[in-house]
Specification:
Strand content: 5-15%
Bound molecules: flavin mononucleotide
Order of helices and strands: HHEHHHEEEHEHEH
Number of helices: 8
Low-confidence stretches: none
CATH architecture: 3-Layer(aba) Sandwich
CATH superfamily: NADH Oxidase
Number of strands: 6
CATH topology: NADH Oxidase
Number of domains: 1
Mean pLDDT: 96
Strand order of the largest sheet: 1-2-6-5
Amino acid sequence: MTETAERWTPTHGEPYRPVPYRPARTPADESLARAAELRARMGLRRTVRQFAPDPVPLDVVRDAIACAATAPSGAHQQPWTFVLVQDPEIRRAIREAAEHEERVSYDGRLGEEWLEALRPLGTDEIKPHLTDAPALIVVFQQRYWLGDDGTKHKHYYVDESVGIAVGMLLTALHLSGMAALVHTPSPMRFLREVLDRPENEKAFAVIPVGHPAPDCQVPDLVRKSLDQVLVEI
Ligand SMILES: Cc1cc2nc3c(=O)[nH]c(=O)nc-3n(C[C@H](O)[C@H](O)[C@H](O)COP(=O)(O)O)c2cc1C
């Protein structure tokens, strides 16, 4: 499979066209070494909420987005759009709208149980990362695609596909040395308006990207151990 230089068109209704796939097999000892290294490196990933304003190499971010766009997707419909925002005015507009929604959420919309779940994270309605981080990746789900005649065609497994792509994005950013945060102000309708996105797109998350501030702190969280998350049969 290659990246297309021109506009990608849906493969909807096209015939099956198999091509050979023969990747070189990785020897077991090398697989083990790579897996152990990856596990250790991924274990160091943390969600960062306090960013340094320093710029980041945008090609790193673009490459991470390109990695995310290799994700598997339901019926290979690739139902995602990544909007990379650097413009300080737009970031300010996003922050203003997000803080408005978050204020309503923290003032009661979330409910006591949700607020209890958030307490250990130390979050509140103030979201400086939206203006401090040098770049924001706003991820949109494409709920459907429009045919040339304007017909709406459903996308399948959109939540799952975009979730997997975002997981790959976070992995790529972390392994490239970038810090990130998945921010989901709710509701997120304002993002489509602020970023002038089409009607078939629904915001999925805002992902600030950058370097941690020198005085960055993160909550002291414990991850489940492998035996708590793995069932072998
Ligand atoms: C779907 C999703 C939504 C999230 N939304 C928010 C959010 O709105 N604000 C926030 O500060 N963190 C958010 N987070 C980050 C989580 O709080 C964080 O991943 C979790 O506390 C574990 O911390 P770690 O990423 O450092 O391991 C979100 C994470 C996910 C996966």
